[in-house]
Amino acid sequence: MNQPLVSIIVPVYKVQQYIHRCIKTLCEQSLKDIEIILVDDGSPDDCPKICDYYAEKDKRIKVIHKVNEGLGYTRNCGISIATGKYIAFVDSDDFVSTNMYQILFEKAETTHSDVVFCNALYILPSGEEIPLTDFTTEHQFYGAQIKEIRKSFISSDTSIGKIISNTVWHGIYRTSLIKKHNIKFVSEREFPSEDRIFHLMLFEYVKRVVFIPDYLYYYCNNSQSIVNTFIFKKYELLNAERIKIISLFSSNECTEDINAAYINQVFYYIWTLLSSKSITRKDKRKRIFEILHDQVWKEISGKIQINQLSKANRFFLFILNIKLFTLLYYIVIIYAYVKKFK
Fold this sequence. Notes:
Blueprint: E1 6-12, H1 19-27, E2 34-40, H2 47-57, E3 61-65, H3 71-81, E4 86-89, E5 95-96, H4 100-111, E6 115-123, E7 129-132, E8 139-142, H5 145-152, E9 171-174, H6 175-180, H7 194-202, E10 208-220, H8 234-247, H9 255-275, H10 281-292, H11 295-303, H12 311-321, H13 325-340
Parallel strand pairs: 1-2, 1-4, 2-3, 6-10
Antiparallel strand pairs: 4-9, 5-10, 6-7, 6-9, 8-10
């Protein structure tokens, strides 16, 4: 059998109501020379059986059953057996256009690129599609520009002028580059943005990357997914992640940008905390006060340049600093109410 052109790695965990749709769009790809690696992360539902069922129907499908370790380590398991010229990642509750990997593969080959990204559509439960756009026209970056792309996974204060999407599921990556430099995902149980860290490590070695304007990936709103699950200890994980990301840059060249990104992530954490219906108002107040009195938060928020934050986040920081918890609480409630009936 010839080497597959693309290895598509699909971590699988508690998605039995979505996985058929995902696998079917992969099996129906116009690019036929692919391998589909379904990695069952100890899923307690019918997903293991579903994976085995499709493997019997399509010889391009490989299935790995393993103990539960989380998304990052599950992707690593897929990488370890991938034989394709390029590697792609798909979340099992999402789906893709049936020509996605042909378009990405041909672009990678004709431009001699290590990475090719497309755009995506965010699918709401109502069926509404929201564009997730990096660029509206094709862009190629190489040489010294790669350093700017690498910084753009963190900050918009670069020659690129915008933050690039950190998600790994909207692109393909040269397999030899990943394996040569032993690039692996960290655990999302230790660092919340495992995709960002993957990109920061990989783009130390990337020579050329292409962004195409096509919307080929469909990112679906699944209320049970990791990104929609509130993690109470996430603040501590964000602190650890900040230190990890700083270590990936030499001479503290991006420390200010990393700190600004950290501030924004903490803001989002507090916002989701206040929006959570499973946590009492008393516990919300207690948690926010714990953050405000944490030495790391006080040090970084005290040094942050105000122009590195959006106007909304400047206001958010002001409210936090003067500890107007009740005002913040009702702002979140009103925002959620308005958004619901918009």
